[in-house]
Amino acid sequence: MTRTGGLPGRVLIGPVPGLLGIAAFLGAWEVAVRGGLVDDRYIPPASTVLVAAVDYLDDGVFWRAVGRTLGAWALGLAIAATAAVVLGILIGSSGVARRATHSTIEFLRPIPSVALIPLAVLVYGTSLQSTLLLVIYAAFWQILIQVLYGVQDVDPVASDTAVSYRFGRIARVRYLVWPSALPYVMTGLRLGAAVALILAITAELVIGGGGLGERIALAQSGGALDKLYALIVITGLLGVAVNLVMRAIERRALAWHTSVRGEVPV
Amino acid sequence: MAADPATIAMNPTPSNPRDVLLRVDGLKKTYSAQGRDVEAVRDLTFELVRGELTCIVGPSGSGKTTLLRCISGLLEPTSGSVVLDGAPVKGPPRGMAVVFQEYGRSLFAWMTVRQNVELPLKVQKMSKSERTRLVDQSLESVGLAHSADSYPWQLSGGMQQRVAIARALAYQPQLLLMDEPFASVDAQTRADLEDLVLRVRHQFDVTVLLVTHDIDESIYLSDRVVVLSSPPSTVREELEIPLPRRRDQVTTKELPEFAHLRAHVFRLIKRESGAETPDAHDSSSLATAGEL
Fold it and tell me: What is the ipTM metric for this complex?
């Protein structure tokens, strides 16, 4: 065994490379704008944007907007997940139901949520329900598809075991189908959480009614470029945070699963 | 009921008529796939005597697993019947527990050892105190009391199969069905598990039906061996194993009777799988085969 890795290589693990990457990106942005490569009437330098972002930290209006966006995101995701899991298990447990719904699901799934904006405005105006409708529609299919795959992935031997010990339908779903499908549900939740955030901000941006999306629209119409970009950077950070939270939940829920538990010395 | 461990009684003298726990009568199973019928089991008839350990042994592909699935109620036979203690089997009966070969897939990875063993009792709504008593007792008897809070995947293969056996014992079946239970573990572990089965079947007073392709194992474990023909299977021969009741991996296998029985079953199965049968005038080929 050679030790070519050495100490310098070992520094480049953990969060260090990621942070270096961000620093390099911000540096390139700053240089590109200051050096005149990019017109600062369209993009202010990174330092200006960061100052604007920091200014938001003690702005009550901003925090209320964040709260509203995250509220719509969380509520929409929760409703979508509940509906997708219940329907997914019901449909997935029956071959007839699977075949009967397959083509309908494949037709409805690719419809982009944003295509529903006119409908949402017509029915709910600029209220929270409009945003929720789009968020739920977008997240629901992501999760449903995963649940349908997950329910199919029950091990036949485990299934025989449950049948031979006379598990009823409900016991089978609770103790076997649900845990077997959980890794898929978690993947669906993670994908759904990301599109739900995108749709929450899109809806606010286009429909209005408060939230970060509306702040972005206001900053744009007011010509406050530094604030506009600061808000964009913040929504990006929000996305990163959402992903980290979902991954942490996944690791906790799937501690027993091969994808998380890693190698076990036996 | 307790047998004197010192007795070298063959089998407990069968009271006439035999105390039959399970009766398999004219069992036939044909699989249909893409318009083609495959006959896995042609006609099987045999009985299990209460309190005995019976092994079903047969050449590979002789429908052993199909037979076990039919008996356990997991698979519906094409014709024929399975009767457990007077009641026809139409789906898994309460009086049976199955131990599968694939312990890793049969145990639930998301539950601890204790939760796995407890689950079938919980599902049938047994009281908490009764559950705890049975789980503790069965884990103790398979030597896993100290691993109750581990997850199955943290244990070795042999220990995982012990968990599956403990789960079956805690369920308090009349009949324990085992499908090639030791086929996926190493030789030393296999010997340990064989002795474990011999021990717990007396401790829990359970009748055992074990399916195996291993002739030595079938004779070592059994009171009675049912030899299957090659597929589509029928009962080739049913023989009592008149070995001392107390078995030992070394001394039992040294007995001349053990060697005779082993050779007898070996010839039956060789003949079934179409290979040359070593006869008296053909002893040279036997010697060669023995050296190989």
Answer: 0.84
